[in-house]
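Give me structure tokens for this 536-residue protein.
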Amino acid sequence: MAKQIRYVPLGELLINAGAITPGNLQAALNEQKVSQMRLGEILIKNGYLTEVNLAEALSEQLGLPFTSLLNIRPMPEAISLVPENVAERLNVQPISIAPDGKLVVAMSDPLDAFAVDELRMLANREIEIKVTTASEVRKAITGFYKMQTSLQDAMADIQKHENSLGADVITISPTTAQDVASVSANDAPVIRLVNTILEQAVREKASDIHIEPSEAETKVRLRIDGSLFNSTDIPKNLHAPLIARIKILSEMDISEKRRPQDGRILIMVSGKKIDLRVSTLPSVNGEKAVLRLLVQDSEHVGIDKLGFDEEQLKLLRTAISAAHGILLITGPTGSGKSTTLYSLLEIINKPEDNIITIEDPVEYTMKGLTQVQINEKIGYTFGSALRSILRQDPDIIMVGEMRDTETAHLAVRAALTGHLVLSTLHTNDAPSSINRLVDMGVPNFLLASSIRAIAGQRLVRKLCSSCKKENEVTDEISKDVGIPAGTKTYLPVGCPACRFTGYSGRTVISEVMMIDPVLREMISRGSQTHDLREYA
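Here you go.
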């Protein structure tokens, strides 16, 4: 038997749950008479409660499970029972078919008896309800239905052309900055499938897409806030045409499957220009592809919002106010170094200064800068670009990364001849950067004279503000980690807002090492990294 829901007025239910006050309810009801909007929508619009608050209250009061669709992959059989237009109209996402035959659905309004009855008649099954937020349902309908349709069409197309696998794919040429949302029904099914994957990644604010072949299937995973989440599974015989399409878009050699390749795709999604850096890698089960998403036109975060504390911000501002010298940002791949550099450039981006950047790739476009994209295929490297830039009368130079001896030497020379140079370096911490540059062949005395400051940073996940739980530091924890006993800390819990991970968003943790006269002397005489670290 399906769970019987006692249909009570939403306002009464929310007051009983303590989510709103009677005054909130009366104000919303008065507005509803004029606007004809749903009561829940009015309460959320006016800030009386959030979508998550509403879903939690409904879940608790009705005794229904509270779920997130972000970590769920609906069964195709369940999706096929409810047409997309019906799912959109009722704001419901089919999830699965339970062992007892019930159709499991996610709804934001389980009190909508008419919607439940329509689903029951349409599917000819009892309905099992899970509660989620309205925005999650809308996102899921857009993603899952489009993905399922694309997969089905692509499979049918492959079966139709079994003897010429991928032929329809490889004859299609890419276009510059194509809008993936504008794909039409006349396009090849594999094109629609690739565009759907790209569109979903942008919508979920993913930083990377991983397309990973295995013996039985191909997994598509998205990296969101530093962690990988499963997106969808693709049948094995779709892997070859899928990779072929990506290779064509990124102008790779589709006939070469034995060696790694790199490429680039420029797409438009919802008016945003997205630069995709593509890398393929041969594996025993086929070629793996990783696509890194760079939103070129994104609004810059601003140095004050990155997570640096006041003392560190003061030191960084001091470093970039110098007339010459080098500021290095260090850390591993994906630690936010470029974002920090751009945020610093925003501060010093003034009409009276000639600022030139050398990047691979150009991750953000910024007005007032001359941004140079290197191209190693034609020999246009960081070193050769920097040599040319020094003849362009620059005041400030940003070098995307110090990768080799030539670039490091030229950057030091530029700093010593009156230029401010900002760059990044791959090291584990700030003091290690000195030895890394020495290993590249830069003499200690030149480093001592040119470097102003070195910042090391990492990105760490932040606790979800919707569900974090207060925790008191015990004597045992205090002894282990050095936090005073009784200090209030917080623990991750998990809710739909954070995909039940307990974390949402990331922030920076960092160290800033200013090069004072003592450090300058230590660097000049070749002191070891641990001595530099101990003094700093």
